[in-house]
Amino acid sequence: MRKVVVAYSGGLDTSVILHWVKQRYRCEVIACAVDIGQGEELTSLRQKALKTGASKAVIVDARREFVTRYLWPTLQAHAVYEGKYLLGTAVARPLIAQKVVEVARRARADAVCHGATGKGNDQVRFELTFKALMPQLRIIAPWREWELCSREDEIDYATRHGIPVPVTKRKPYSSDRNLWHMSFEGGILEDPWAAPPEEMFQLTVSPERAPNRPEILELTFERGVPTRINGRRFPPVELVERLNQMGGRHGVGRVDMVENRLVGMKSRGVYECPGATILYTAHHELEALTLDRDTFPAKALIGPKYGELVYNGLWWSPLKAALDAFVQETQRVVTGVVRLRLYKGHVTVLGRRSRYSLYSEALATFGRDEVYNQHDAEGFINLFGLPLKVQALLRR
Predict the structure, then answer these.
(1) Does 28 share its domain with 147?
(2) Phi, psi for 91 (deg, rounded to 5)
(3) For this structure, is 174 an active site residue?
(4) For the chain, what is the domain count?
């Protein structure tokens, strides 16, 4: 091979991989880092990549694209994996891989490389995107090739070759941060009985240390997309960042779960997703107000399936595209305002309103009304319960 583009984050895996690929294949290596909200993690990333052996380091600012083309569709679908995981890492991988392919195409590279392990889901997510967008590229996955067997081996390798890495053997957490969440795996977290150490968390305070006074906010949605906080319109990236800050200071959005990986094993992950938790809560409440009785439960079936597709790396699949079409049709009426309270790790819905609301106070009231004839319920119940009545009579 002549030229390889490495999906580079500056973390332990990709820092070691950058050096290893250059030594192993004797080729030119280009580092491609994609900014999707890692924050200070990107500081000095270009210099670090060049020092580690890259001939060129490309940093792509994809934050707005990440929010509008990846996070908003996932939110609109109410996609969730196994009831808890809001897909912060899973939804980011197709975008990162897409940008790596774009760099590889411009550089006329022969191959692309990722730092996912042979035990994880990310290898699938990266490689399915590579295959979908540029199938002729060769794919290098060092964790499936090299002699290193653990993160401790990687740390030793980095020490021998003078590669700076952000972890130590005492704190070998594998973390991933973007605008949607921060995740942690490894180390003490590999014991599902062990509680996560408080000093590990970075986006949220513990609920015990959160303010003793709640914070009230209003979120405005237009066709299923959040646009305003407390009446003020924000650009997509800033809106997510502000909700992360608001939720984080109230301890909102911590998730600790054991999940089923695509490769067949169970793993334990801890996540911080304050802004996403707020948005999912509000979006669901607005759908409950605006979607009809048949569409609402049908839409609820889509979320877990959509989440499963994203988790399994099938962002570019025909089924996901078909589900997108269904979801977008449902979002035509998901416009309105939801009022929320943030307090001690909880998000509570206080109110909701929409010009597309299907709620009729005249019908729902327990007071006097001139709309609903309660005598009609008798005939309805007789017909609805007819199969049960027939069954009971025949059994007797």
Answers:
(1) yes
(2) -75, -20
(3) yes
(4) 2
* Catalytic annotation, pick one of 9, 15, 63, 93: 93
* CA–CA gap between residue 242 and residue 245 (Å, rounded): 5
Residues 241 and 337 in one domain: yes
Asked if residue 169 has pLDDT above 60, the reply is: no
Task: For residues 27 and 94, state if they share a domain.
Answer: yes
Per-residue pLDDT at 342 exceeds 60: yes
pLDDT of 289-333, one tens digit each? 999 999 999 999 999 999 999 999 999 999 999 999 999 999 999
Do 313 and 204 reside in the same domain of the chain? yes
CATH of the domain at 114: 3.40.50.620
Q: Which residue, of 144, 168, 192, is where some domain finishes?
A: 168
CATH number at residue 307: 3.90.1260.10
| Lowest mean pLDDT segment, chosen from 9-13, 88-92, 140-144 | 9-13
Same domain flag for 81 and 146: yes
Which residue range forms the structural domain that includes residue 38? Answer: 3-168
Provide DSSP, 70-89: IIHHHHHTT--BTTTB--TT
Chain position carrying tokens 């949220």: 204
Q: pLDDT tens-digit profile of 198-229?
A: 999 999 999 999 999 999 999 999 999 999 99
Residue 93 is a catalytic residue: yes
**In the structure encoding, which two tokens stand for residue 109, read together?**
């590279």
Structure tokens given for 195: 């509680």
Whole-prediction pTM: 0.92
Tell me which of 9, 13, 151, 268 is the catalytic residue. Answer: 13
Strand 182-185 versus strand 266-272 pairing type: antiparallel
If asked whether residues 331 and 183 sit together in one domain, one would say: yes
DSSP code at position 16: H
Catalytic residue among 15, 35, 110, 122: 122
222, two tokens: 């237009």
Residue 338 pLDDT greater than 60, yes or no: yes
Of 135, 168, 201, the residue that ends a domain is 168
Residues 6+ apart with CB under 8 A from 104: 5, 111, 112, 134, 137
What's the mean pLDDT when you consider all of the chain?
A: 93
Active site annotation includes 368 = no
Cβ burial of 134 (10 Å; 0-12, 13-18, 19+) is middle
Q: Quick check: is 156 catalytic?
A: no
